[in-house]
Design brief:
Elements (H helix, E strand, L loop, with lengths): L1 E4 L3 E4 L12 E13 L4 H10 L6 E13 L3 E5 L6 H8 L7 E6 L2 E2 L5 H10 E4 L13 H11 L8 H11 L16 H13 L5 E5 L7 H18 L2 E6 L2 H7 L2 E6 L2 E7 H6 L4 H8 L49 E2 L2 H4 L12 E2 L16
Parallel strand pairs: 5-10, 5-11, 8-9, 9-10
Antiparallel strand pairs: 1-2, 3-4, 3-6, 6-7, 11-12, 12-14, 13-14
Helix pairs in contact: 4-5, 4-6, 5-6
Length: 374
Amino acid sequence: MSVVDSGTRVVPQTDATSSAPNERVILRLSGVHRHYTQPADILVRLGRLLKGAGKPASVQAVAGVDLDVVAGEVMGIVGESGCGKSTLGRMLTGILPPTSGQIFYNGKEVSLLDTAARREYDLGVQMIFQDPFSSLNPRMRVIDIIGEAPVVHGLVQRARKEDYVAELMEKVGLDPVYRFRYPHQFSGGQRQRIGIARALALRPAVIVCDEAVAALDVSIQAQVLNLFIKLRREFGLTYFFISHNLGVVSHIADRVAIMYLGRIVEIADTETIFSRANHPYTQALIKELPMLRTDQRQFDPIKGELPSPLDPPPGCPFHPRCPEAMARCKVERPLLKPVASAELAGDIPDIRKRPHQSACHLNDFDPRRKHEIC
């Protein structure tokens, strides 16, 4: 649930234990990288060898991510297009293997799981894709799109398939009468609900939502977000919610991680991100949010373009666009470290909140800087 704060932003209301440090970590990423290298045929490799060229350039989609996701929480992942958030989600679901690093599920490294444990992981982490049309097989009826996988994996008997699909369709707000229709016979919002029902059909513990509402109208976005909140309570789900829209994430997330060029540059609970953002990139993203204001402040977008992941800048990856960049930022990459935002802002520390972390050299000089977004 969420409430509107002074008509300008949305502050999530989360359960008291949703981000408690002593709760079970269901997903853990440790030093995860994902690089893409364009394959070359024999002539290209021979030409590079004759020219004395080195290895072909690779795209650093994810360049070292460490992250814990607590069971039952909603972890929001936000960043511009090309920052690596969708690649991160696909690695969590096993669609893509990491180039290096480790992914843990319930404390066990995924790459070392035996057959039974790997099956539990594959079923326990499901994904909802951005495009609700291309992610559904146009030749299959809804009853098979939703019901085929649970029957194949032995979760539901074939004789109960139709009833099981009807129950799930009701859960996601669809009339079971339409279970024999094809995807093209539904609207965008209805197709997204079909995708949600398909993910729920395997009784997962974690659902990765990759821009799950980006392709929907604003009014339908609100309905789908409310559905996510309802299903979270009913099934005890953990969400890994990927979006480029901070406004959408503010409605549903308990914590938010901000990604830039394959790395997390700031992470904190949602209220802290919106009231005391520390990293200049996070502050710039929040300033770009459309808000109801009485003043006539001019829109000030982030300067410059996102650097190419083929050739990321040295030092802090945000320094070419940062208004506060200094010489150190150009040569030394800042580490993700805790910042003392709550205490310095005069708030009462809350032990239930996980540490507010930010990767910025400015924190080494004045940790009290710019906790409030003007």
